[in-house]
Design a protein that fits this description.
Blueprint: H1 5-20, H2 26-34, E1 55-56, E2 62-63, H3 66-76, E3 83-87, H4 93-100, E4 104-109, H5 112-124, E5 131-134, E6 147-152, H6 161-165, E7 167-177, E8 182-189, E9 195-203
Parallel strand pairs: 3-4, 3-6, 4-5, 6-7
Antiparallel strand pairs: 1-2, 7-8, 8-9
Helix pairs in contact: 1-2
Length: 213
């Protein structure tokens, strides 16, 4: 698990790339600059670790494009100590970014292979989520609600109702909605029954799978 000066240099270049694409939140940029993304990928992909691209990982999933991670994280406007629910732990890279920002992270993954791998791997890097859960992201995590923010890291064909109901008043749900191409959508809870919805352009994600078990 090496993190060399070369890796650190490549990370700073990556930070500049996403800055030029419009990410302005310094805490988010700092997190991207600090987290060794190459360790979240197979070593054969080392050259690709600091390009601003999504990349395949186990179980037919991907590690999201750094810009996308930064974009979704910036929308959440995380403050230290915020309680954040992540749907789709995946490689754990987004989880690490959330931890780096001081969030209390609860993360759900439905691919057992990824869940096992990431549960072991994140603590080795010093990132400890409050809870990593193997389960169905569509139903959220009722017993830990309400959340300051919920982030969905896979394309959802529709917005799962339980996720909206598990937000605090003032809380934000950031979710890519759509089938082939997704529109990054943010719901801010304004009251018990009222939500404000904003859209932020098109992105591409692997699909959010509903638990068929």
């Amino acid at each position: 698990m090496k993190d060399t000066f070369k890796h650190q240099g490549l990370r700073q270049q990556l930070v500049n790339i996403i800055k030029n694409k419009g990410i302005t939140d310094n805490a988010v940029l700092k997190a991207i600059g600090k987290i060794p993304r190459h360790l979240f990928m197979d070593s054969s992909f080392l050259d690709h670790a600091y390009q601003d691209k999504a990349f395949p990982i186990a179980a037919n999933q991907t590690i999201s494009q750094p810009y996308t991670v930064a974009f979704q994280t910036e929308l959440l406007q995380i403050k230290k100590g915020d309680k954040i629910l992540e749907i789709g732990t995946g490689s754990g890279y987004q989880t690490a970014v959330l931890c780096e920002l001081g969030a209390k992270v609860y993360s759900i993954e439905r691919q057992n292979e990824l869940f096992k791998k990431t549960s072991k791997f994140l603590p080795k890097l010093g990132y400890r989520a409050k809870k990593l859960i193997f389960g169905d992201g569509y139903i959220g995590l009722e017993e830990e609600a309400p959340f300051d923010g919920i982030i969905v890291t896979a394309g959802a064909p529709f917005v799962p109702k339980p996720l909206l109901s598990q937000l605090k008043i003032g809380g934000r749900l950031v979710i890519p909605v759509g089938d082939d191409v997704q529109v990054m959508t943010m719901f801010t809870r304004k009251g018990p029954k009222s939500f404000e919805q904003e859209e932020f352009g098109e992105f591409r994600f692997v699909p959010l799978l509903e638990d068929k078990n």
